[in-house]
Amino acid sequence: MHGTTRTRTWTWSSSPWAWIPSLYFAQGLPYVTVMVLSVVFYKNLGVPNTDIALYTSWLYLPWVIKPLWSPIVDLLGTKRAWVVLAQGAVGAAFALLALTVPAPAFFRLTLAMFWIVAFASATHDIAADGFYLLALTERNQAAFVGLRSVFYRAAMIVGQGGLVLMAGKLTERTGDPRYAWMVVFGALAFFFLGLFGWHRIVLPRPESDGPSERGAGLLTGFLTTFKSFFVRRDIALVLGFLLTFRLGEAQAIKMVTPFLLDPVAKGGLGMTTAQVGLAYGTIGMIFLTAGGLVGGYTISRMGLKRWLWPMTVAVHLPNLAFVYLAAFRPSGLATVAAAIAIEQFGYGFGFTAYIMFMVMIADGPHKTAHYAIATGFMAMGMMFPGMASGWIQEKLGYLNFFIWVCCATLPSILLTAFLRIDAAFGRREAP
Q1: How many Cα atoms within 13 Å fall on the side-chain side of residue 287?
Q2: Which are the contacts of 354, defined by CB distance < 8 A and separation ≥ 6?
Q3: Residue 130: which pLDDT band, with cuts at 50, 70 and 90?
Q4: In the chain, how long is the greatest CA-to-CA distance?
Q5: Sorting pLDDT into bands at 50, 70 and 90, what band is 34?
Q6: Cβ–Cβ < 8 Å for 346, 292
Q7: 3-state percent breakdown (helix, strand, coil) of the chain, nearest 5
Q8: What distance in Å separates the CA atoms of residue 66 and residue 72, rounded to the nearest whole number?
Q9: How far apart are CA 390 and CA 388, in angstroms?
Q10: What's the pTM?
């Protein structure tokens, strides 16, 4: 028996505990695979930094244009069906990814598979968030928001930490990085095909979950809503802040893993893949999550207006940790992990303000659509700077590159001084 929003009798399949953890774990894992694991994978297989940065940055595109095809998810089928279909597509793409790793033209073939994963994952985001709103009452939506966040973060730790560590250990045992990554991607394929079967069974069937009957009216309404986002007086300032806030991070995130893996002779730290999985993927993600929790609590107590500028600085100032690592290149894993932990905690703490800023500018009758547009600009701010980061790094070297990253954070710090923030905003919305 499948539960609905009106079902009062408790059954396992109607319990949010049966599907919310797995649904949001499934939302986070493909994203971290496309954005982070792809960089480690290509670095292990000897792809130059310029190519890694350029082509993996293009993988942000599905999240940039996600608001443009979100009406299709409303017009066709149910959110439940889209969720299950997307997970099946992700599982099939991971299977094909594993099979193409040994191919002579592996770079083009695996990149095509990453594209399929990216588009399926972005579609899954749309459907899963919509399904969450339809399958739960407003009271339960608030009650389970923390749980969904925890499992999304857990997916990040497993992907960026556990799977990288797994690939590193397999490489050390076999001496064959291609085989190691085949195993990793094969495991992801089996996992998502398992989720495909699991969610076909346990996801409830809300009565309100169905295709929109408004047809062309929906498209017209969407275009009107999309246009309304850009009529605000301070739109240029808002877009400037959205696009520059992650300008430094967008470049750094593509080169951190190559920097950690490259030998000392090339200016890197000479770490193993397993060490990167532990220091950056596991310890770093734990401190990132902790920083986010502290940031959310801070805004909830004091509001966004008071903390926007300090939090913007908190995001960017810890980039100096990588300047330190590039300048002194310490060999101890503990020292490197401590520097990464400081940088990730500062980023997690400050990034909360950016999320709340997007919530603020989306507030109103079109909150969902406007927030999706804001996240599209956020992804755009990651994609284009990241594309050039590999070329910049190879021209400057790692030390000067990370100094450049610190300079690239200055525009957003400057723009923060001109943003108009409601003095009361944040205290009631922050988790």
Answers
A1: 18
A2: 245, 246, 311, 312, 315, 378
A3: confident
A4: 65
A5: very high
A6: no
A7: 80, 0, 20
A8: 11
A9: 6
A10: 0.79
Amino acid at 182: M
Residue environment code for 134-172, b if the CB has 16+ CB neighbours within 10 A, otherwise e: bbbeeeeeeebeeebbebbbbbbbbbbbbbbbbbbebbe
CA dihedral 48, 187, 289, 292 (to 10 degrees): 80
- pLDDT above 80 for 315: yes
Q: Is there a shared CATH topology between the 14-224 domain and the 229-431 domain?
A: yes
DSSP 160: I
- Cα–Cα distance measured from residue 329 to residue 323, given in angstroms and rounded to the nearest whole number: 10
Least confident of 1-10, 83-92, 94-103, 214-223: 1-10
pLDDT digit string, tens, across residues 134-154: 777 766 665 665 567 678 878
d(CA 59, CA 35): 7
Class of 14-224 in CATH: mainly alpha
User: φ and ψ at 310, to 5 degrees?
Assistant: -60, -35
Each domain of the chain, given as residue ranges in start order, spans 14-224, 229-431
Joined together, the tokens standing for residue 303 give 């509001």
Number of neighbours of residue 179 by Cβ within 10 angstroms? 16
In this structure, the chain runs to a length of: 431
Helix (H, G, I), strand (E, B) or coil at 215: coil
Measure Cα distances from 241 to 170, 204, 359, 374, 378 in Å: 43, 40, 14, 11, 9
Give the model confidence (pLDDT) of 348-373 as tens digits.
888 888 878 887 887 766 666 677 78
The answer on pLDDT for 183 being more than 80 is: yes
The CATH number of the structural domain formed by 229-431 is 1.20.1250.20
Query: What is d(CA 125, CA 23) in angstroms, rounded to the nearest whole number?
Result: 10
Pairwise CA distance, residues 260 & 57, whole Å: 19
